[in-house]
Amino acid sequence: MTVTIYDVAREAKVSMATVSRVLNGNPNVKPETRKKVKDVIDRLNYRPNAVARGLASKKTTTVGVIIPDISDLYYSALARGLEDIAEMYNYQIIITNTDQDPKKERNAFLNLVSKQVDGIIFLGGKLNSDVLQDIETSRVPVVICGSGEEDNDIPNVNINYYEAAKEVAGKLIADGTKNICFVTAGYSRYQESRMISGMKEAYEEAGFNGDDYLMTEDAGDYEKGKEIFGKLLDNERDAVIVISDEAAIGILHGGHEHGVAMPQRLQIISCSNTRLVTMVRPKISSVAVPLYDLGAVGMRLLTKLMNEEEVDTTSVELPYSIDYRTTTR
Amino acid sequence: MTVTIYDVAREAKVSMATVSRVLNGNPNVKPETRKKVKDVIDRLNYRPNAVARGLASKKTTTVGVIIPDISDLYYSALARGLEDIAEMYNYQIIITNTDQDPKKERNAFLNLVSKQVDGIIFLGGKLNSDVLQDIETSRVPVVICGSGEEDNDIPNVNINYYEAAKEVAGKLIADGTKNICFVTAGYSRYQESRMISGMKEAYEEAGFNGDDYLMTEDAGDYEKGKEIFGKLLDNERDAVIVISDEAAIGILHGGHEHGVAMPQRLQIISCSNTRLVTMVRPKISSVAVPLYDLGAVGMRLLTKLMNEEEVDTTSVELPYSIDYRTTTR
DNA sequence: ATGAAAGCGCTAACAT
DNA sequence: ATGTTAGCGCTTTCAT
């Protein structure tokens, strides 16, 4: 019924090995033989069974992607970058959503390993010790993208969130706005704590103690952003640095509803840089994180790891810039 | 090195067949034997090789998803719904982006088939005859989600875009605004032509000839939406029905820049219903397409198809509603 | 309830 | 340059 390599071999009057060779571009095949085999392949409309191939070769040309939520613009931008590069190198990707749930994360990892993926990419996520342990024992190449995790020895690609936060806060402080609220989203605790350190450093350099001024709130989506607006007012904040773009928009609209002038009374800078920030009015100032590139570079790194090529750094840091738009003075 | 079913069998002093049985929940295993085997599995930390399993059983518990662009909010919402259900039924999903390119689409399909996926879901896309042919010959269950394709006999799930367009246009016309522009996005020509039919029917029912009033423009993203705003003005449009939410926002902002009052001078209704429509001001009226459900129901349908269960309809139509917000009068 | 053995469709030595 | 053959790690008859 389904045509196999054996059928092709028989029809072409060669051995399976030869068919396999032309399939895999092995140069040790006489051109005429190659042509003969190719003709039969076309005639029979033969398509190699990738599963059998995977079992025999121990390579599946598929990589797993573990992602908090594909419908989040931040992650889907990363995913797109990553898939484009994967396609370029002839890898397919299996995507699993975890909603940051450690159980789901571990499950996803184990599933992928049992599917014999050649490599795994983590986007965001917290990587609890269970998974860390699994990574260790499974010996699958893993890279972490855009989560700010750089404390362990797993290859990763990020921007320098510490510096970004420091720069943003520094600019704000220099302009005299010291009552900053950092609005976290729970994407990555590690990244967020790095950013807090950066901000405190900015205070320090300006001669202030960050603890006297900086406060923290949590809001990961639009509704939550609107919700916390009151608190920002109550605490006399005059600037927010917010991880989630959607939360930033929520805050923006919360401000509209309260009749608060922005950026005069409250400045907003977001940190995810999805295309949302330029699709609202006023346009939101943001840290220009190269989302697509983060994914693309991560996948490129993974291809090298899977090929056992030498890599100079397993911790790559992409440049970022800061786009001051209309929610900052 | 890697522990196989054979190792488990040896350690548990049973045959591979028995181990396989406990692995697959076959009831024909004495409880004590089952326990013994399970203990060894835990002790050795054995994980079945899904590739070998796939080769032997001809089932891979993975389904392919062919999608125009995962970073498009519309598709990623569908994808999320679909993946949630897939996870529920223990399927993994391989995602491929095609940018609506027929070549890429065909390639993706062929790749998935060679990976022996148990089923394939198409989101959007045009399904040219090549692919249609491949679907025919490969005999893989396929379902199409949210693309409005219902002209062929491939199982699909959609809303009734014809009715939705008719309803929206009808309301507009009844209110006296007849100069409508339908802004397409090229997502699905078929869906768009169905919608045009619906709109014309609405004119008809109101006693007008749609051809005298209806015009069409194309804009699939924010920038394009802003760009075409001039044309809308030049053609004295007083309402737009637009496929892409981002284009709708572009038009909205184009209006702001031209100082055009909305909805007084121009009404906007979008048709994708991503969460963007409520994240801009004014909020955009839209056809409330149940994106997540479209994906979820599609995947559920596919699981039935893969199980060779009886399905009553292979063409399911989900209900929709229309949310009149602030860009309509 | 359990075991033996024949594949699943391919790759990769090893021979020639 | 080509063929032979032994797996890859599992499922699945078929016996018992």
Explain what the structure shows:
The structure is a homodimer of 329-residue chains. With 329 residues, chain A is α/β, with parallel strands linked by helices. Chain A is 47% helix and 16% strand. The first copy, chain A, is built from 14 helices and twelve strands. The first copy, chain A, has helices at residues 5-12, 16-23, 31-44, 50-57, 73-88, 102-114, 129-138, 161-174, 189-205, 210-213, 222-227, 229-234, 245-257, 291-306; strands spanning 62-67, 92-97, 119-123, 142-145, 156-159, 180-184, 215-218, 239-242, 267-270, 285-288, 315-318, 321-323. In chain A, the strands form two sheets. The first copy, chain A, has a six-stranded parallel β-sheet, with helices on both faces. Chain A is elongated and about 85 Å long. The N and C termini of chain A lie far apart (70 Å). In chain A, 49% of the residues are buried. Chains A and B meet through helix 4, helix 5, strand 2, helix 6 and helix 13 of A and helix 4, helix 5, strand 2, helix 6 and helix 13 of B. Chain A binds a DNA duplex (16 and 16 nucleotides) through residues 2, 4-6, 14-18, 20-21, 23-24, 28-30, 33, 48-58. Chains A, B: Keywords: Activator, DNA-binding, Repressor, Transcription, Transcription regulation. Chains A, B: Residues 3-57 form the HTH lacI-type domain.
